Amino acid sequence: MDIFIQQILNGLVLGSIYALIALGYTMVYGIMGLINFAHGEVVMFGAMVCITVVSTLTHSGVNLPGWAIVLIGTLVAIPACALLGFVIERVAYRPLRGAQRLAPLITAIGLSITLQQVAILIWGRNYIPFPDLLNSDTVSIMGASITKLQVMIVVLCVVLMTGLLVIVEKTKLGRAMRATSQNPSVAGLMGVNVNTIISATFMLGSALGAIAGVMVATNYSQAHYYMGFMIGLKAFTAAVLGGIGNLGGAVAGGILLGIIESLGAGYIGQLTGGFLGSNYQDIFAFMVLILVLIFRPSGLLGEKMADRA
Amino acid sequence: MSLLEVKNLQVAYGGIQAVKGIDFHIDQGELVTLIGANGAGKTTTLKTLIGMVKPSGGSITYDGKLNGTIPSYDYVRHGLVMVPEGRGIFSKLTVEENLQMGAYYRNDKAAIQSEIERVYELFPRLKERFKQLAGTLSGGEQQMVAMGRAMLSKPKLLLLDEPSMGLAPIIVEKIFEIIQMIAKEGVTMLLVEQNAKLALEVSQRGYVMESGRITMGGPARELLDDERVRNAYLGE
Ligand SMILES: Nc1ncnc2c1ncn2[C@@H]1O[C@H](COP(=O)(O)OP(=O)(O)OP(=O)(O)O)[C@@H](O)[C@H]1O
Ligand SMILES: [Mg+2]
């Protein structure tokens, strides 16, 4: 039983990070029907920028508490990633607007590789450790333990996701985003500059991605130029699982996937008689992806594809 | 001077010439109808006026300024508003949010709210359903949303593309009442209609479009009496 609760907790932490990243995929898909496969790399850049700032500050010997240093790093990573998201859309996707679906997809994959190479040029190929600045005390919940940092991660994810939902549902910008996603040409008739809305969507998603990147880096105490690939793919799976284009779906899909994966990792040894270890946890995410694509391609909360065409 | 002056306008989709050099004008305060068979190029003409489609030749002068010099999403700020064919409502926004979208470019919150209330007075059925997703409304109610949304945009020149399409006679009557009411308030209008009789009856002038060309034009009364129009468009 202990391991069950422990894995649920781990899954919750992992899942809320997936959810935060999945929102970036799903927002962009919702507004322009495009899978921005480079989003994982935006997450990686967020982690890298934060680590760079944090390491620089630590080595310069400033007299600040650890959390303040991490906060500063995050506050630099957010606009950096928002800018990156803006540039990605302008340079890579906007010229392809109206092109056949395959062209932006190939571009996205190319972009993703390019960004990894840029990261190698800047940060090298090695794992970069995240300085040990944050309180790693644990709290125990029903016999399972979780670090205070992880509690923070979950709480922050909930706050950010709520904030995003409020923006999308209650503000004029959000209304314009939803209108644009349903019918860009009519939104244009109302005075909506569709390009501005698309840019804003990329920037919002990338800002959330930056924070997710910091969370991953702090949670695993490291970052790496290739980290965006796997986490991006998982978050994409989460978005598909929830129903791509649907914000609530991305959140539900992310948390569900995190829990499935953690439980899978916890029990895979038992399930396979010790043949596979918890290092195989990744297969669960992709099994989920394949099953969803076969049996319910519109996702748990998604609507029929015909609605979007 | 006319509010809208169109000279030798041509529009092509790829190789297909949809509008083949048309001239017409609309004066301030007029209600003008454009009739024509399916595929004549009426929708294309409206879309070109509002910047959704680029002309391949000719000129459009609105309010003394040559169109094409501002981005199309800015047309609404100059009072050029269209209710598109098929209504173009945002089906997953609520009725109220659709109306608010009409006022997207405006910032006068209090005035917007009171104008929304006014739309609800004109269309009580929308008031009852203001929180409902617009996609779940009936066709007639959706047309009411589209008209109300256009009113929120404070048009100077309102382009209406087949507002009566697919609606029951009683709803058509209601929509035409609103059209006349908007006209009385001084809004200039260009109305595209299949329901030629009704449209010409409320208009001052009309044009007839046939396969990309304007073949007739004049006072609505004269068109109503014209034998060719009666045969081709009034089903007599
Ligand atoms: N996006 C498009 N691409 C190619 N051809 C088009 C496009 N839109 C319209 N056309 C063609 O242009 C011509 C005029 O179409 P348009 O929609 O303007 O006609 P209409 O007078 O509004 O007809 P209806 O009464 O059926 O609405 C038609 O032959 C149509 O097939
Ligand atoms: Mg038409």
Q: Can you give keywords for this protein?
A:
heterodimer, A: about 300 residues, two-stranded antiparallel sheet, 4 strands, about 5% strand, globular, B: about 240 residues, Rossmann fold, 4-stranded antiparallel beta sheet, L-isoleucine transmembrane transporter activity (chain A), BCAA_transport_permease (chain A), membrane (chain A), transmembrane (chain A)
Topology:
The complex is a heterodimer of chains A (309) and B (236).
Chain A lengths: L1 H31 L6 H21 L6 H28 L8 H22 L4 E2 L8 E4 L2 E4 H23 L1 H11 L1 H6 L4 H27 L1 E2 L3 H16 L4 H25 L10 H14 L14
Antiparallel strand pairs in A: 1-4, 2-3
Chain B lengths: L3 E10 L2 E11 L4 E6 L5 H8 L7 E6 L2 E2 L13 E4 L11 H8 L6 H14 L1 H5 L10 H14 L4 E5 L7 H16 L3 E5 L3 H7 L2 E6 L2 E7 H6 L1 H7 L3
Parallel strand pairs in B: 3-8, 3-9, 6-7, 7-8
Antiparallel strand pairs in B: 1-2, 1-4, 4-5, 9-10
Characterization of this structure:
Chain B: Residues 4-236 form the ABC transporter domain. The complex is a heterodimer of chains A (309) and B (236). Helix content of chain A is 72%, strand content 4%. Chain A has helices spanning 2-32, 39-59, 66-93, 102-123, 148-170, 172-182, 184-189, 194-220, 227-242, 247-271, 282-295, and strands at 128-129, 138-141, 144-147, 222-223. In chain A, a hairpin with a 2-residue loop joins strand 2 and strand 3 (144-147). In chain A, helix 5 crosses helix 6, helix 5 packs antiparallel against helix 8 (194-220) and helix 9 (227-242) packs parallel to helix 11. The termini of chain B are far apart. The longest helix of chain B is centred in the last third of the chain and has 16 residues, at 169-184. Chain B has a domain at 1-79 and 157-163 and 188-236: P-loop containing nucleotide triphosphate hydrolases (Rossmann fold). Chain B has a six-stranded mixed beta sheet with strand order 6-7-8-3-9-10, with helices on both faces. In chain B, strands 2-1-4-5 form a four-stranded antiparallel beta sheet, with helices on one face. Chain B has helices at 42-49, 95-102, 109-122, 124-128, 139-152, 169-184, 196-202, 220-225, 227-233; strands at residues 4-13, 16-26, 31-36, 57-62, 65-66, 80-83, 157-161, 188-192, 205-210, 213-219. In chain B, helix 2 runs parallel beside helix 5 (139-152). The radius of gyration of chain B is 17 Å and the shape is globular. In chain B, strand 4 (57-62) and strand 5 form a beta hairpin. The A-B interface holds A 172, 175-176, 178-179, 182-183, 185-194 and B 50, 52, 71-77, 81-82, 84, 88, 90-93, 97, 100-102, 104-105, 149, 153. Bound molecules: adenosine-5'-triphosphate (ATP) and magnesium ion. The site of adenosine-5'-triphosphate has 12 residues of chain B, from strand 2 and helix 1.
